[in-house]
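Known limitations

Files may contain more than one protein. Parsers should not assume a single record per file. Below, a two-record file is shown to illustrate correct handling: read the sequence, read the token line, then continue until end of file.
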Amino acid sequence: MAVTDHGQINSGRDFAKPPIRLFKNLSAKLASLPMIMTATVIFVGCSIWTIVHSFTNSRLLPKLNFVGLDQYERLWGSNRWIVSVENLMIFGICSLIFTLLISFTLAALLDRKIRFEDSFRTIFLYPFALSFIVTGLVWQWILNPEFGIQSVVRGLGWESFNFDPLYNPDIVIYGILIAGLWQGTGLIMCIMLAGLRGIDEDIWKAAKVDGIGTLKTYTHVIIPMMKPVFITALVLIASGIIKVYDLVVAQTSGGPGIASEVPAKYVYDSLFLRQNLGQGFAASTMMLCMVVVILIPYVYLQYGGKKDG
């Protein structure tokens, strides 16, 4: 006990120093140490190792024989790499737009409390439970002109119908896009639906009282309120776009010719098929730069301009 200048009695714990921030939630911090160490050693360490060796002429085995920017000059002088980057841009832009559009539309429809909502949600989410290899093989069969959609439609009497995107080098990337959308929209739909269910019902009631239409309510009120949800969805979609590999291998193996090449497949082929580690490391480094380009806007949108409480 202690007596103040005004004669008031305070308990001794009022004078206790606040705990040092370093030791707050100590058990949680100790539990996270293995994960932090693993991420630091494996991700950061291996990334640095890859970047360093991308400036070497390593072939079958890594060696520190530096050749400057030669690997990057060869990389950007390769038509195969240029095609793969172009395909990634087409696939990425279309995937971002259509995944967000389809997912939000489906989520908005389910949010109207329709009958059999649980069943529909399960049906839409089910493709996400499949591996990309399985999805790619399924859509390879569906898009096969011999026994897929084209064959079925022609069997119905439309003999001039043509739909063989996986065998047409001009549109093959769109055939891969169809499979990617089929698998990826379910998860994003569920994220969007969770965001919509977090909107207060009073907002909808106020919009109806003010005579605001449903479409205008979505575009001017609901979507701006769901900004964190859209940011999360964008990051998930973008991370899947950059590492797309399984769908391409399962559906086309990069063909016809090199028409459906993507950066991830270029890296794999350079490392394990052509045994050119330096070229594979250079391509991997460029893919890392793509990831950084995506993460910087995400980090800024999430934390930029915010102050500690």
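...continuing to the second record:
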Amino acid sequence: MTALPEIREGGLDLAEVHALLQTHLDTMALHSPAESRHALDLSGLQVAEVTFWSVWEGDALIGCGALKELSSEHGEIKSMHTAAAHRGKGVAGKIVEHAIATAKARGYTRLSLETGSPDGFAAARTLYARYGFTECGPFGDYREDPYSVFMTLELG
């Protein structure tokens, strides 16, 4: 019997998390030029305003995600990645649901994200739209970029 996925806060000290994050960065590099990649590296995830989650199925790391506080009312989803062998199993949806619940618990009124515009990011855009995220303009420190799609969800 397969263990249910478990979302754990942290894990940035684990080698398997480092490897998954490197895969995430490498995947971004396949679809976007360097100046259009906004994924956080390990040091970017280790700052106080970022909460990082690793997702496990038993002893197997199957995904990750993070929530960055932009202000007391606005958060940003970062570093969403599902291990290739676990795609299509709802892992990313569980991370999005967890991020939304955490944002609401923190009192955020808005949750936003940046993802890619190339075809390699189509599944991500579809996932976020399924949870009610809609396209918006750049937020925070972002600028218009033909390789970026900005999305937001009003939390009320």
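Parsers that stop after the first record will miss the second one. For reference, the second record is described as follows. Residues 82 and 92 are 6 Å apart (CA to CA).
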